[in-house]
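Q: I'm writing up a methods section and want to include an example of the input and output format. Could you take the sequence below and give the corresponding predicted C-alpha cells, formatted cleanly so I can copy it straight into the document?
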Amino acid sequence: MRVYFRFLRQALAERIFSPRMYAVAFLHGFLLHFYMRAVVRFSKDMECAATPWAFPFLLSNIFFLLLFMAGVVYCFSDVPFMQHKNMYQVIRTGRSKWALGQISVIAAQAFFIMVFNAVFSMILLLGYFEYSPGWGKLYHTLALTGGSKKYRFLFDFSYETMQIYSPLELLVLSIMLGTLVIAFVGIFMFAVSLYVNRSLAVTLAFFLVMMIYLVENIHPLLKRWAAMFAPVNWMRVTQIGIKFHGSFIQPPVWYMVTVLAAGISICAGMVCVKVKKIEFQWYQEE
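A: Here is the clean output for your methods example:
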C-alpha cells in the first residue's frame, strides 16, 4: 500500500509539473486575463472594488468554455500515459493499481485545473479587489445597466443567477461540476485510447466539447433536450435554474452529478478490465 501511495504522489507530481500542464496553465491564464481586463477597467473607472466571484460567469460564455476545454483535451491528449518512464510504475504497482492510480490522478488534476482558474481569476483583480460574502455593487451594476456593452465585456453577469445563488454557492457548484466534467472527459479519453487508439480519443473528446455549440444554436424548444446529452455544457452553471422561452435551459444538478458519476464509473471500469489483458505499447516521451 505504501508503494501505491508513493506512486500516486509521483504520478500526480509528474502530471502537474509537466510541460503539457504548463502550456495549459499559460492558455487558461491568458484567457482569464483577456476576459477579466474589462472588469478591472470598469472597476477603476467606477472607483468601485470588485468581489472575487466572477469565474462562474466566465465559464458560461461559450467561446471562453470552448477554448478552456480545448486546453483540457490537450492536457489529456497523451493518453493512455504509456511513456517509457511509466513502464517502471506498472512493474512496481501492478496493472490494476496502475490503472486505478492513473484514474485518481486524472480526477485530482481536474480539481487542480478548476481551483487554479478560480484562484487566478481572483488574483487578476488585485488592486481592485474587495472581499464580500455578497455579489457586490459592481456586478449588480453590470447586471442591471448597459455598462457591460460600453466596456465591451465578453461575458455577461446574470441578475437572475445572482438572485438564485449566493457567490459561494455558485463558486462551489462551478468547481464541483467542472471537476466532474473534466474528470469524465479525461477518463473517457483514457478508455477510448485503450480500446481503440489515442487519435479517436482526442477526436471524440473534441466532439463532446463542440456539443456546447449545438446546444447554443439549436431551436429554443429543443435546447433543454439537447443540453441533457451535452455534459461539457453543464459547466455553464449560471444557466442552471434559469428559464428560456418558458423552459429551463439546463437539467437539474442531481441529474448532472448522477450522469457524470455513472459515466466516470463506467469508463473507469472499462479501463480496469482492458488493462488486465492489453499488450502495452510503450512510446518515447514527447
